[in-house]
Design brief:
The complex is a heterodimer of chains A (327) and B (340). Chain A is built from eleven helices and twelve strands. Chain A is globular and about 65 Å long. The longest helix of chain A has 18 residues. Chain A has one domain: P-loop containing nucleotide triphosphate hydrolases (Rossmann fold, 3-Layer(aba) Sandwich). By secondary structure, chain A is α/β, with parallel strands linked by helices. By secondary structure, chain B is of the alpha/beta class. Helices cover 32% and strands 23% of the residues of chain B. The chains are: A alpha/beta (327), B alpha/beta (340). The interface between A and B is large, with 40 and 45 residues. The complex binds adenosine-5'-triphosphate, adenosine-5'-diphosphate, iron/sulfur cluster (SF4) (2 copies) and magnesium ion (2 copies). One magnesium ion binds next to helix 1 of chain B. Chain B: Keywords: ATP-binding, Cell membrane, Membrane, Nucleotide-binding, Transport. Chain B: Pfam families: ABC_tran, oligo_HPY. Chain B: GO terms for molecular function: ATP binding; ATP hydrolysis activity. Chain B: It comes from Fonticella tunisiensis. Chain B: Belongs to the ABC transporter superfamily.
Amino acid sequence: MSDKKTLIEVKGLKKYFPVKKGLFNKTPSYVKAVDDVSFTINKGETLGLVGESGCGKTTTGRTIIKLYEPTDGQIIYDGVDIAKFNEKQMIPYRRKMQMIFQDPYASLNPRMTVGDIISEPIMIHNLMDKKAAQERVQYLLNRVGLNSEHANRYPHEFSGGQRQRIGIARALAVEPEFIIADEPISALDVSIQAQVVNMLEDLQEDLELTYLFVAHDLSMVKHISTRIGVMYLGKMVELAESNELYSKPLHPYTQALLSAIPIPDPDEAASKKRIVLEGEIPSPIDPPKGCRFAGRCKYATEKCREVTPELKDVGGGHMVACHLYDK
Amino acid sequence: MEKEKLLEIRNLKTSFYTHVGEVKAVGGVSIDLNKGEAIGIVGESGSGKSITMMSLMGLLSENGKIIDGEIIFEGRDLAKLSEEEMQKIRGNEIGMIFQDPMTSLNPVLTIGDQLMEPLIKHKKMSKKEAWDRAVQMLSLVGIPSPESRMKQYPHEFSGGMRQRVMIAMALACEPKLLIADEPTTALDVTIQAQILELMKELKDKINTSIILITHDLGVVADVCDRINVMYGGLVAETGSTRDIFYRPKHPYTWGLLKSIPNPKKDEKERLKPIEGQPPDLLKPPVGCPFADRCEYAMKICMQQRPPLFEVGEGHKAACWLNHPDAPKVEPPVGRGETNE
Ligand SMILES: Nc1ncnc2c1ncn2[C@@H]1O[C@H](COP(=O)(O)OP(=O)(O)OP(=O)(O)O)[C@@H](O)[C@H]1O
Ligand SMILES: Nc1ncnc2c1ncn2[C@@H]1O[C@H](COP(=O)(O)OP(=O)(O)O)[C@@H](O)[C@H]1O
Ligand code: SF4
Ligand code: SF4
Ligand SMILES: [Mg+2]
Ligand SMILES: [Mg+2]
């Protein structure tokens, strides 16, 4: 990938959720789910997003495609800032950006046939007449490795892997450019995971798709991603090309995260040194100032507790937010 | 090395009777476990891993029944014990951890009450003794300020902490056997690492035997001494962890190992999934259950179920390729090592 054209540029993105405290509490508190995050996604690439549960991966994805209203920041899609667009202005973008969900069981309407599930977005966007839509459904079913007859069946008649294919066919129905896949394989068996990942890779190549891929299986994220962003408590703490990130993690949190991956090789597992992180991820409600990892970081200094480290390029596009790399 | 047996499952068969017929969930499974040993059970969903364990614990649902086989635990056949007798063993001699700690903890009881209950019931401890022991267990599993945590309810704990409470509870009575069914699947890798380290410690320090059910081959490689690979309600292959990873002898094991990405490799290799679907346990195939997904299948595979061939010391594989008359096949994975 030599010509890196930016598809999406996110600048200073914030998403705060208000939390209800006691009845007589005057100052409202916020869950700072995404707190001043900036990054770019290039055309045709897969950006992986990893981090502990609750760190803001899903919220980041959903805010970019404006399923959530951003609290602050810019979302520049193909040169246009859509952050403050209203529903009407968003219509053309709703088609370009689609989402694949984690749970293939919950995300499909059980009372609709597979054909209707897949063609629904086409109808919503008024893209073609019923007959053409049916033809497109046939094409899509074949594209994701299902049969044309499957169009008349209901979701419960399919296995988890097949349902995930149906979800993917639905996302592809309106010819999107950008797809957010939020834990698309977590609910599937290992051998089925490989089928779905291969399919996502083929589709990306044939249809020139750009992916944001969220997952907690770090080996799979490395396999599928061009670049990977690591999030911690609402912040992007490191972002690099995927081989670079795995071979040369800079942020102490990334180092701990990668050392915790179970290696499917008994000899290597026995010789591997694991950095076991003490404690848990702190609450994102009114998080501490300074570096948010300071409470669990063995390198933390006074400065870390006072000054929030900025995400900076330390060479070759490898970005890290940590005072250890201040010049 | 003198090894003492703790558990011996012999030819276990368990079925469910449903409105569409008999589901043969477990079709004749044998598993051995020594004292102080950790074994893994791997295999895709529906292969019978959990039902094997439920049979052992006497926790099958109404429509489920053990049809045949023995489950010898310390000289007693658990398959023949009454529910009353099993209650004395569950949560006492055998501890359990399940995948979803929220459904296994009682939401209206404090963590402390739930930890103390089995100690008072099984170990006949006084309230004071049980309290002290429970606090001790919570700190053992790494819960900070355990005294004040005792008075909290499950919803006040994070997912990782609830899972550690489950482990504390499973271990409070110092069971001889700990059964963990997908204990870390829902957890983050960092928390998973904490739990796995804890399980290894228990095995080494208090000689607990562990059965770990998981679909994560990385987890078994790290924790287990031996592995049982299950497929279609049967054991497909059993051996030491190094046997299974470095010299596997069953095409299903090969398929499993090929389908996972190698985080060590820099260049991107395409993943190799196992195509096709697992067998329908309503009408299990007469021959090898893996036959219609197996690229090496021969005529005999469709007609006769392969026995567990002894392919090395303590290493067995249920595949006709290991018959002396079968054609020689080069395994696509492993290190091509022969048996030690
Ligand atoms: N609708 C909402 N209202 C209030 N808080 C929310 C909402 N959605 C998410 N949050 C909070 O925002 C934070 C980030 O959540 P998010 O779902 O983005 O996490 P995640 O990184 O995707 O985690 P996981 O790996 O568990 O899916 C969490 O603290 C979560 O509790
Ligand atoms: N209560 C039940 N009634 C009928 N069939 C069941 C029941 N519980 C499990 N089964 C079937 O038994 C087989 C083995 O299930 P299980 O042991 O849960 O698999 P896993 O290996 O995923 O743990 C599956 O085919 C499953 O559908
Ligand atoms: S900024 Fe300080 S506390 Fe934060 S990760 Fe770097 S060294 Fe640790
Ligand atoms: S017995 Fe036959 S079908 Fe079964 S795994 Fe071996 S070669 Fe394949
Ligand atoms: Mg999420
Ligand atoms: Mg199970």
